[in-house]
Batch of 2 targets.
Target 1
Amino acid sequence: MEESVIVNAMENDRKKHGFDWLTATLLAWALPGMGHVFLGRAKRGIIICVTITALFWSGIAVGGVMTIDSRYEKWWFYAQILNGASGVISWLRSEREFREIEKTPEMQQLIADTLYMRAGMGFKTDRTIRISASPTGRPDELQMATDAKLAQKGISLACPEEDVARSYTGIAGLLNLLCMFDVFMLAVIGDGKTAEETIRKAGT
Amino acid sequence: MLGWTIFCNPVALPTSSILWLLLPLTFAVSLVYRAIKTPDADRIWLRTLTTFVFLTAGMAALGVAIYLLQLFALRCL
């Protein structure tokens, strides 16, 4: 069979559905499964939505508000934020806790000291750098003080809850990334059904 | 005494229960994967079940293999 027939069939498939890949992928990120619903795969979309959302919020239920930690657990955070609205809501809640802790005079002093020390050592002094872990990879004084404050509030995470909560939320995010990729591919090249039909007809 | 609030405070999990929490995680991975990959939507649940069993058995086998390997390594040392 000529290659042009296959290419035309796939192009017709895509045109028939007329999917907007950007809208579909953004929807898939914002609310897991909604990308599939947008593409007319409602059953699969609902299954994905319920499973990923339940997995993510189970993780938050186990680990609490500090399961999402954009300051000291960056790699987990990148995976968790792939959960869309759920990830963003949880992130904003944890940031609020961090900001409340930072308001106290002793923490302000510690932040200023860390900033001064790192500036003296030639490190960047923007907000992201000054609150991250030390260059040696060990928790610095600021991080330990933050952990102590979180423990006082009863929201600090420790093993084994930490492992379970971060695994659940992080894997939920990575599963949603897989779904986003699937939605993107479906929106760009179609589901192949119309193309298959055209090719079969052309072959007979 | 601080009050416990769901989605705010962590749950105190007994260490012995961690392995059991692998099962819902494996099931969720199987279900999402099969929801994407199964061509016939009516067969998603059946395929999910088989994937779940394969995944769980595979991880158990891997765990046993690593356990035996470390036993062997400890004897050699």
Target 2
Amino acid sequence: MTTNNPFPPAPPAADDAWLDDLLVAEGVAARAVYIDDAGFTARVVEALPSAVAAPAWRRPVVVALWGGAVIALVMAMPTFFVELLGTADALLSLQPFSLASVGVALVTLLALTWGAAAYSLRG
Amino acid sequence: MAEPSVSDAQLIARALVTDDRHAFAELVKRHQSSVRACLRKLAAGNHALADDLAQETFILAWRNLASFRQEARFSTWLYRIATNCWLAHNRKRREELLGDRVDAVADGEDETMPHSDDLHADHARGAALKLDLERAMGALSESERAAIVQCYHNDLTHEEAAYVLDCPVGTVKTHVLRGKQKLKAALAAYAR
């Protein structure tokens, strides 16, 4: 605790300046004091509500449901999907790039995205 | 003070994306002093109440971190939550006191601030002034006290104070002006 008096002696002023000075000085003095943590952060972290964890069975069930939905769709409209695949194959065979180059480009893009995210969240 | 190697924004992103409690703990460590000081001022020196409200503030911040849009500084956002916690506490307390106690409290607050006779030495005068200022602040309305605390104690601009108090800038200025008029009247003895 400092022995310096942060509060200026009240002047015999007729205007409001002395009150303004007093409030400003009081604010400056208060901001200069650091309140010791003294376990406060630990108490807060202890009291934080835990994240609602998804049950272990949720993920495989969701994957199985999506897989089932895709298979059912293909079985319901087989000619549509055969035509779709044929058209895609014809389009790709007309392009000057190979499937392998498309794959490399996709992997590079994913790596760049992941790298940028990891960089921004680095510790 | 040296700039921290990891910014508040990075810590917030880590807490949000990876549910990182250590990152949030670092945010609490950085801001606990200013938030507790602000609440101590709002709670008119009641440190126990201020610390309870500060804890509530950070828990609410954790729960609502996803809604923080970086439209203000993180500290300003925390002041906003802290002020709302304090106002909610007062509302709850008022409901509990509803009836005869409210009038008694209001009457007590309107009394002229007593002050020591021994005000000749500067230090003693400063100490008495500090005490009387605290009591005078305690007698202001919630809105006036909150506006003065944000503008003077937390050194926010009127625009930032308006964000914290969730009201127009003009209203903040009015609250500050009225609050200062009351403080001036309560501390008139020191202006002679």
